[in-house]
Structure formats: structure tokens, C-alpha cells
Specification:
- The complex is a heterodimer of chains A (about 325) and B (about 325).
- Chain A has helices at about 50-55, 90-95, 120-130, 135-145, 165-175, 195-210, 220-225, 245-250, 255-260, 325-329; strands at about 5-20, 20-35, 40, 65-75, 85, 100-105, 180-185, 215-220, 230-235, 240-245, 310-315, 320.
- Chain A is α/β, with parallel strands linked by helices and about 325 residues long.
- In chain A, the strands form two sheets. Chain A has an eight-stranded mixed beta sheet, with helices on both faces. Chain A has a four-stranded antiparallel beta sheet with strand order 2-1-4-5, covered by helices on one side.
- In chain A, a hairpin with a 2-residue loop joins strand 1 (about 5-20) and strand 2.
- The radius of gyration of chain A is 20 Å and the shape is globular.
- Chain B folds into two domains: about 1-65, no CATH class; about 90-315, Orthogonal Bundle (MetI-like fold), CATH 1.10.3720.
- Chain B is mainly alpha-helical and about 325 residues long.
- Chain B starts with a helix and ends in a 7-residue tail after the last helix.
- Helices cover about 75% and strands about 0% of the residues of chain B.
- Chain B is globular, with a radius of gyration of 24 Å.
- The chains are: A alpha/beta (about 325), B mainly alpha (about 325).
- The complex binds adenosine-5'-diphosphate (ADP) and magnesium ion.
- Magnesium ion binds near residues 49, 50 and 186 of chain A.
Chain lengths: ~325, ~325
Amino acid sequence: MARELLMELQDMQINYRTRAGRINAVRSVSMDIRKGEIIGLVGESGCGKSTLAMTFLKLIMPPGEIVGGKLLYYGYDNGEGPVSVMELQGGKLRRYRWKEVSMIFQGSMNSLNPVMRVEDQIIDVMIDHDFPEEEARTNVDKYLSMAGMDPSTKRSYPHQLSGGMKQRVAIAIALTCSPKLIIADEPTTALDVVVQKQIMDQLKGLRDRLGVSIVFITHDIAVIGSLADLIYVMYAGKIVESGPVSEVCNRPRHPYTAALMSASPTLKGEKKRLNGIPGSPPDLKQTIVGCSFAPRCPFAFERCHIEEPQLKMLEPGHKAACFKLEDVK
Amino acid sequence: MVVTIFIALTLNFLLPRLIPGNIALTILFDKYGSHLKPQDLKLIESQLDLHGSLLQQYQIYLVQVAHLNFGYSFYNYPESVSSIIAQSLPWTIFLLGSATVISVLIGVFYGSYIGWKSGTRQESFLSTFAITLSSLPYFWLALLLQLFLAVVITVDGVHLFPVALAYSTSVTPGANLPFILSVLHHLALPLMTLVITTYPGYALLMRNTIVNVLGEDYMLMAMAKGLRVERIRKRYVTRNAILPVSTSVALSIGYIVGGAFIVEEIFSYPGIGYQLYQAVTNFDFPLIQGIFLIITLSVIFANFAVDLIYAFLDPRVTLK
Ligand SMILES: Nc1ncnc2c1ncn2[C@@H]1O[C@H](COP(=O)(O)OP(=O)(O)O)[C@@H](O)[C@H]1O
Ligand SMILES: [Mg+2]
């Protein structure tokens, strides 16, 4: 089942210039996003997931800085080929944002304007993307119910809603302009498990009904097992393993993925001992020599500390960056 | 609010009476020396409501206040305190009101401008300029303006601005053009002093709130939504940034009535502040008391207004 390519991220590299030094938040990430696909991006907090998420909307702002890589968007069917998102400016950039790619921000409960009613925050984005005001108004209910909200809440101000409801409003807003790609940055963190499950089901339903692509970001690999088609595992600013969910979750190849799996409770409720991953991620201000996971890896050997492993195709669509796997072959 | 007003009234009654000695006596001796006879004194005391026990005085005081009757000025006897206040309050409201409106307008625009430019060289220059202005003592600026624009500099032998008073003695008060022009001409210097020293405060407050608002998550969201710049400015930035500024403006209503009394004194501008200054130098207790009461009440009402404005502007605040 080869789906059509929607977005292509090539060797993206992003730094933050801070007083304490340069943080290499995203060191190299490549990713293909196809139409109607749900991609799970997973990694411990601080590995650069949110930074990567921002690039899709060209939202990296100082002190952040893109130092390399490309982002190509294939969603405009005008026969002119892909557009480079990094080169979008002014009105073109404004219309690309939300109309083509929208986002549910991490901590989206704080991303609502406190002095505007819910409905006005849904309508304004539609009007600014050239929908007639009448149409925008009539669609408010639709989008709210799509996100699992009672449409009667549209007259509320954000502070009158619970965290879960605000999160749903953020989802509703993300749907407004029928984007082709939705970036969901930890949309369910801080919610209880039941609400979490509901929101995930909602997102999955949206993909099934609307054919929208979703990049679902989380630090909890168990969350995306049932949701995503593909998984990208990120560690210290790089992808260390990627592939179809069934492959990656059932047969994790990279020791970090395996560690993430055993550190996470399963939704299905099997009882097992949870092992946190010992050690901590490397300091992204320092140049990393060798494999970034080597200091925490139970299987690391000499070569891992000297040379950096590259992503290698193990099976069709399943890649991992680890010397141990190469030796086995 | 009722409780606050009551406490204010009581304090206002008690404080002057805590001063030892017979005030009426002191003042009258000052003025008329030994010409006074004991029976005159009795008469005056009874007129000034200073006889009877403290409680009786308090009762009389409350009744009088309810009738807006604050007694007679010692110094300008037999003029009543309320008539002095009634004459000077409009001037103060005129001067401070126009100064506040102009300062707020300039401050909000200036502050928004530098807030948007935060981090640039231009911003740091303009902010430093505002900080410098706001730290100028306003009596000093008043004297400086008065010295240069009303005394030293002349054009064809004519001074640019009048040194003092609210209007020239050569015009007749009323709705006539010469009077209005004279009033505006006399307003210029005190107004300039107040605007120059107060607008930077509003500007810096506005700048700080804008910078804070720009760092909020909902601003990132607004950018991501691809909203038009004007909408982001109006509905997202200014709408949120105006909240603290409006509080500060509303609170300054109390200050408006209190008057910038040194400015009024320097320019002999016949407002409340000027009267207060005079009253203090002349130990005119009933007048001081009356003016303090007016100032206190306006501060209390200003606080109440802040609550109202906030409930109107910020949906997170509801009135109980
Ligand atoms: N605005 C910023 N300024 C400086 N450093 C930042 C900023 N945002 C993120 N970082 C740093 O970049 C790294 C990646 O952060 P982030 O993308 O938020 O990771 P994640 O979403 O995976 O938790 C972290 O080390 C973080 O401290
Ligand atoms: Mg994050």
C-alpha cells in the first residue's frame, strides 16, 4: 500500500543559541510523511520532538535556528512540484500555516487566548483563511463535535473549561481549515487515561474519515502502539529507529527502543515490572562522539564510543542505527 | 466599599483632633493676636463645631459630611470648605484629566511600538529614553519649563507661556473665545510637565506587558494559525496587554483628584493640590480635612472602578 508523499523532511538540523552555548536540539532527522498516515514520534523529553514539530509550520524563532536540511511540501496539487517550506514568506507562509498544516501544541491548554470565546478562536482562523464568515459560523458546531466537545461550550471562555476540554478545543481548532497534516505534540499528556483514550480514538477517526495525515508526538511509546502506522524513535536529536508499528513494537531492534518499551506500561494492562532507563541523555551542548546512546547501552562495545552508527535498512521500511545489528548480519 | 468609606471618614475625623492644643485658638491668635476677647472665641468655636465631647463632635461631623458640609476654612474664614473645593476641583480635574488622557495615549502607543520591537537597538534606545524621563522629578521639570519657556526665552519681547494661574486676569470667565484661549495657554506648561513625567510610566508598563504577552503560548498559536497581522495585534496582543495598563489608569483617577500638588503650587494653578498646599502651610485644618476626604473617596471609587473595568475587559474576572 504505497500512499502518496505529502511531506519530506531531509537531514533537518536545528540549534538553539543560548548564553550557555549552542544546543544541538535536532541533529539530523529525515522523515517521509504520506497522505492519510499516522506517524508516531517518540522519545524521552528533551530529545528535540517539539523543536522538530515547530519546523513543520516554520515556527522556529530565535534563539532557535535551522542550520541545515530541507522541508518539502507536496500537498499543493498545482503541478509545480513540491514547495520548500523554509522559503515560504509573507502571505504564502501565512496561508500555508493551518490551511495545509495545523498543530496541537504541547500544553495546548495554555495556547488558547484567554480573552476570546471558544467560537471566536475557531472562526477567526477560518475567516483569515478566506472562508466566508457565514460558513465559518455554521461550522463551529461541526468541528467542536468532531473533537468530542458539546457544541454548547462554544460560548465559553477558556478559563471556564477543564484541561481536557481545552485540549479538545485545541483539537477542534486544528481541524478548522481541513489541513492535510496535523502535528499533535503530546496532545494527551497531563490528561487522565480515559480522556487520553477518547482523544486518541477521535484522532484516529479523523484520519479514517478525512484522510488527514497526523504526526503524533509522545514520550510514551505504549500510547502510539494502537494509533500509529509508523513509528520514529528519537534520541538526542536523531532518529535511531523507524518502521511500521507492528515491526518496531513487536521486535524493537535498537537497544533504546527496547528500553523505551520496557519502561512503559502497556494499555492492554499486562503486568510487568517497569524499568526506567538508567542514566540520562547526553548534553546536547557538547559534540557527541560515537553513538549517543552508548553510555547508557547495556550492549555497547568499543566501536560504539568512537564511531557513530548510521540508520541501516533491516527489513523493508524498518531502519535502525546500531552497530550490534550490523554485526549480527 | 461601604466599610472602607466609613473607616476613611472616621480616620479623617480623628487625625486632626489628635493634634494637641486648641487649633482654633492657635490660628486665631496667629491672625488677630491679642485683639480677641473671650466671647469672640466662644462664638467662633461654636461656629467651627469644636465644642462638646468627641462623640458629639463625631455625630455632628457625620451629619455634616452627609450634607457635603465640611465646615469653614480657618484661614479663609468665613468661606466654607465645600465652596473652596467646588471652585478648585474642576481645575484639577481639567488639568490632571487632560494630562492623564494624553499620557495614556502617548504611553500606550509608545509602549506598543517598543514592545513589538523588543530586542532591537531601537527598542533599547527608546526604553532607556523613557526610563530617563520617568525618573525626572516633576517639580524640577516644572521649574525648568517655567524658567525657560515662561521667563528666559522671549520672542519679540513676549514670553512664550504665562508663568502662573489658570487664566489671564484680563479676560472675563465664561464661554468666550479669549477666555478659552487663555485657559489653554495657561494649561500648556503644567500639562507638559505632567505628560512628560507620566507617559513614560505607561509606556514602560505597556512595553513590559507586550513583551510578556508575546512570550505566551497563545501567541505562538496565533502565529501558527496564520492569522492576519492586524488581527494578531488587536485581538491577541493589545487586547491582552491592555489589562494591566487599564488598572494603572483607573488607579490614577485617585491621583487625579489629589492633584499633582507641587505642579499646581509651582504654577499657582488654582486646583485642589494648590489649595491643599496652601491649607497645609496655613494650618487650615477643616480645609485639609475636606480635601483629604475628597481624595480618599476618589481613591476608593477608583479602586471600585478598577474592579468594574476589569470585569468588563477580562472574562476571567467576575463581579461578586
Ligand atoms: N526556546 C529554547 N531556547 C533554548 N533551548 C531550548 C528552547 N526550546 C527547547 N530548547 C532545548 O532544546 C532541546 C529539545 O527541546 P524540545 O524540542 O522541547 O524537546 P522535547 O519536546 O522532546 O521534550 C532541549 O534540550 C531544550 O532544553
Ligand atoms: Mg516537547
